[in-house]
Amino acid sequence: MNLPTALDTALMTEPDHTDRVILLENVSVRYRSPEERIRSFKEFAIRFIQRRVRFKEFLALDDINLEIQPGEIFGIVGRNGAGKSTILKVISRVLVPTHGRVWIKGRVSPLLELGAGFHPELTGRENIFLNGALLGHSRQDIQERMDDILEFAELGAFIEAPIRSYSSGMTARLGFAVASAWEPEILLVDEILSVGDEAFRIKSRKRMEYFRSLNATTVLVTHQMKIVEELCNRVAWIERGKIRMIGEPKEVVRAYLKG
């Protein structure tokens, strides 16, 4: 019997990536947390030295397999704590999975949390430079996009005020404006379209549809089922770290709401 060579093994295990930009294979993320509530770091340190800290483990993601094609707006729905945001963090490489592998083709522009990458004491304008730099853009490139960012965010004179004085809607507008100022190859959006006024949500949806026309890929986490049905090509329903269903938006939303 002929045993496979190293090259044969590589060919058998390496997937065909020609029709996808995101691939998760058997991905699991395991967390450890103390069983008892510990009120301070000092108390934790004392208990840890005395070996009195008992941990419990849980799977935030449990054997996730997922493929996303170029140009899709792919939605992820589920209850709070189901693992939706954890999937986005794995795709953006913020989290390294405990098990499995992640394959990404393209530059990822993550918009995972309100105010992520913003410093509360800096002004909106200063945070544009900070956030743009974190996304890998030069100061000159950010300056060239500044007018477009300010126009989209519609913050007026507040752009010179510190971020700590912003409402959640204002922070969302600025964060989305910066993340979407450059045509992304892969855009990750976590609940941003659920905040702000209706005019902002409509404008954000139009920008996402424009990105889709450029064959950019968007992964969208939201509790707004109307947005899922209107925008997404396909949707995954995740529950307790497992994917329950993947399919057409209306079909998945109907099953999720019943479940």
Task: Describe this structure as you would to a colleague.
- By secondary structure, the chain is of the alpha/beta class.
- The protein has a single domain (12-28, 60-258), classed as P-loop containing nucleotide triphosphate hydrolases (Rossmann fold, 3-Layer(aba) Sandwich).
- Helices cover 37% and strands 25% of the residues.
- It is built from nine helices and nine strands.
- The protein has helices at 6-13, 41-49, 84-91, 124-134, 139-153, 168-179, 198-213, 225-231, 249-258, and strands at residues 22-34, 55-68, 73-77, 99-104, 108-111, 186-190, 217-221, 234-239, 242-247.
- Residues 1-16 have low confidence and may be disordered.
Question: Brief description of this entry?
Answer:
By secondary structure, the protein is α/β, with parallel strands linked by helices. The chain has nine helices and nine strands. Helix 4 packs across helix 5 and helix 4 packs across helix 6.
Structure keywords:
three-stranded antiparallel sheet; six-stranded mixed sheet; 259 residues; 9 helices; alpha/beta; disordered N terminus
Write the layout of secondary structure elements.
Elements: H1 6-13, E1 22-34, H2 41-49, E2 55-68, E3 73-77, H3 84-91, E4 99-104, E5 108-111, H4 124-134, H5 139-153, H6 168-179, E6 186-190, H7 198-213, E7 217-221, H8 225-231, E8 234-239, E9 242-247, H9 249-258
Parallel strand pairs: 3-7, 3-8, 5-6, 6-7
Antiparallel strand pairs: 1-2, 1-4, 8-9
